[in-house]
């Protein structure tokens, strides 16, 4: 029982999670995602570059982060924002050179910031030399054996080999023209038609990716975020299935029985990768982007011999509801504690509507990947900003790892007014505009109050336009404002480090504030979130930080607000 000195006599606690006893950086890490195309353009071509990231590392280091995660920067025709890779061991000339990458790693090391790179193992670009050789070699060749080529169905092979649909819309198969000019085999692409899937049953594919891992580990990277880590292996025989590759038509998505996802043999691949990383000094890590439910199944990706972390998409999709947040946090910690792994927490990334927008949509949030356009219901930006700040403060008060998406520390919303003619996401084009895609969350960052691209580009060029009103959300505008979202993130991250919250314990606070209030104690910090409609009386404890400073009496928690209070250290909460 925690006794307070104020008007509330006591707080009843339900212990859930013990303090982490393993002093490893990745178990309590704060990792900042950089989407290079949209971060900072130093050469003025309208596309962000590695040199731009290096130039702004000092400002990122001020957030007290542990690592950067770089979305793909490899050579690519950019049919899918760089996730269509044509060479896994180089840098796209539009983004820089390998020398620029080495300079970035060196500069980050000087600031005690690690660098994690994206790895896209399920598929490559049709421009990759291995796929071009497969096309030229013809059916039955060893070159085609690196990819999923199959003969078509129907009298002349005119029908796809099965009924699978692409994540981006339309069939997951494309027919090729053979070297002699005749219609030929079909190749599988779970994503865009320019992204052929590798055949991971082929040992040569596995050896190639081990080579790629070593190439980047030798250049000093601290690990890899693994794209679509639940894919790679497909069920034998490639059976028909009644859903879409993105699960959009399947109740209970992500999946339970999809033949292209979650096959048991996939774990052998990651066990081998873990062995490769263990050959290098320091603690190099693997983080899975695995859309897997329930959380008890997702925990299979982070057993001690496989991935170190995996994204927690259940938390990302959580509604603005105290009871549901408690349920998801509880199930997350229970599932990951059971296999000795840290949970991770994330609110935004390059594939989903930013949480400052999502939380302003009321009861009709956009689905991941679909985006919001001018014809859709528009968010309440004021409400979204309030809730986003509160949600961020709650997240940073949880034990485990945290992933931040570039610009969320500025409170950036999605660009919900992008016109059709500027959209570039393949989802939009493959579905004829039925699904808008992810361009709205990938808009280039604002750095300054003025200029054609608000400091993003040296000459004002920008591959996607910024929305009106972003000048006051720029880093320059927020830097010296103590009430800004940037100041909130800086303060929260400093306190998180000082109080050991990332490796801390968690106990739920019962009977405080009613059903709309969520309360927890992590080490010596009491975290309270109010998702209800009425103000809540607070314990008489010192205030460390609140998401809406200066808007309340000292001991009142407003609706759509989160607060951190100083309390006694509970340390171990387990048995």
UniProtKB/TrEMBL annotation:
Domain named Glycosyl hydrolase family 13 catalytic: which ranges? 33-442
One of the Pfam families matching this protein, by short name: Alpha-amylase
The record's family statement is:
Belongs to the glycosyl hydrolase 13 family.
Q: Under what name is this protein listed?
A: Alpha-amylase family glycosyl hydrolase
Provide the taxonomic classification: Bacteria, Bacillati, Actinomycetota, Actinomycetes, Micrococcales
Task: Return the InterPro entries for the record.
Answer: GH, GH13_cat_dom, O16G_dom_2
Q: Where is this region: Disordered?
A: 363-382
Question: What Gene3D superfamilies has UniProt attached to this entry?
Answer: Glycosidases (3.20.20.80), Oligo-1,6-glucosidase, Domain 2 (3.90.400.10)
Could you state a single Gene Ontology molecular function term?
Answer: hydrolase activity
Q: Kindly give the SUPFAM superfamilies that the UniProt entry links to this protein.
A: (Trans)glycosidases
Q: Which organism is it from?
A: Kocuria oceani
UniProt keyword annotations, A-Z = Hydrolase
């Amino acid at each position: 029982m925690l006794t307070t000195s104020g008007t509330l006599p006591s707080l009843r606690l339900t212990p859930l999670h013990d303090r982490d006893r393993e002093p490893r950086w990745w178990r309590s890490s704060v990792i900042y995602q950089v989407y290079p195309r949209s971060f900072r353009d130093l050469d003025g071509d309208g596309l962000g570059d590695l040199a731009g990231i290096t130039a702004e590392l000092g400002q990122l280091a001020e957030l007290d982060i542990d690592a950067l995660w770089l979305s793909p920067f490899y050579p690519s025709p950019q049919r899918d924002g760089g996730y269509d890779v044509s060479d896994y061991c180089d840098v796209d000339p539009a983004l820089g050179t390998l020398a620029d990458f080495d300079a970035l790693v060196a500069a980050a090391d000087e600031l005690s910031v690690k660098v994690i790179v994206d790895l896209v193992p399920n598929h490559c670009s049709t421009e990759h030399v291995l796929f071009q050789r497969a096309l030229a070699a013809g059916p039955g060749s060893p070159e085609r054996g690196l990819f999923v080529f199959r003969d078509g169905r129907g009298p002349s092979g005119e029908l796809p080999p099965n009924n699978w649909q692409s994540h981006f819309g339309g069939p997951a198969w494309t027919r090729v023209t053979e070297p002699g000019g005749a219609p030929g085999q079909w190749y599988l692409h779970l994503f865009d038609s320019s992204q052929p899937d590798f055949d991971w049953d082929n040992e040569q594919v596995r050896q190639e990716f081990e080579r790629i891992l070593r190439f980047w580990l030798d250049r000093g990277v601290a690990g890899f975020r693994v794209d679509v880590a639940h894919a790679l292996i497909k069920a034998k025989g490639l059976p028909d299935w009644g859903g879409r590759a993105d699960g959009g038509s399947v109740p209970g998505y992500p999946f339970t029985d999809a033949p292209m996802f979650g096959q048991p043999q996939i774990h052998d691949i990651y066990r081998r990768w873990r062995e490769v990383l263990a050959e290098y000094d320091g603690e190099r890590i693997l983080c899975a982007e695995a859309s897997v439910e329930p959380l008890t199944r997702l925990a299979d990706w982070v057993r001690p011999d496989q991935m170190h972390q995996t994204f927690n998409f259940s938390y990302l999709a959580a509604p603005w509801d105290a009871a549901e947040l408690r349920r998801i946090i509880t199930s997350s910690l229970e599932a990951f504690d059971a296999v000795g792994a840290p949970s991770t927490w994330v609110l935004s990334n390059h594939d989903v509507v930013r949480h400052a927008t999502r939380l302003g949509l009321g009861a009709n949030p956009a689905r991941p990947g679909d985006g919001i356009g001018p014809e859709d219901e528009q968010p309440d930006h004021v409400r979204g900003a309030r809730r986003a700040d509160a949600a961020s403060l709650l997240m940073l008060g949880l034990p485990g790892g945290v992933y931040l998406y570039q610009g969320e520390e500025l409170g950036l919303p999605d660009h919900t007014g992008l016109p059709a003619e500027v959209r570039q996401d393949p989802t939009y084009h493959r579905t004829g505009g039925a699904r808008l895609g992810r361009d709205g969350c990938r808009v280039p960052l604002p750095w300054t109050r003025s200029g054609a691209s608000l400091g993003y580009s040296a000459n004002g060029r920008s591959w996607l336009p910024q929305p009106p009103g972003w000048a006051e959300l720029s880093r320059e505008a927020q830097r010296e404002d103590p009430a800004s979202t940037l100041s909130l993130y800086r303060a929260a991250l400093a306190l998180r480090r000082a109080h050991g919250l990332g490796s801390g314990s968690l106990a739920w606070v019962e009977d405080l504030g009613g059903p709309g209030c969520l309360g927890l104690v992590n080490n010596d910090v009491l975290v309270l979130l109010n998702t209800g409609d009425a103000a809540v009386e607070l314990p008489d404890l010192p205030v460390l930080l609140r998401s809406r400073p200066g808007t309340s009496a000292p001991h009142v928690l407003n609706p759509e607000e989160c607060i951190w209070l100083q309390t006694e250290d509970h340390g171990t909460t387990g048995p």
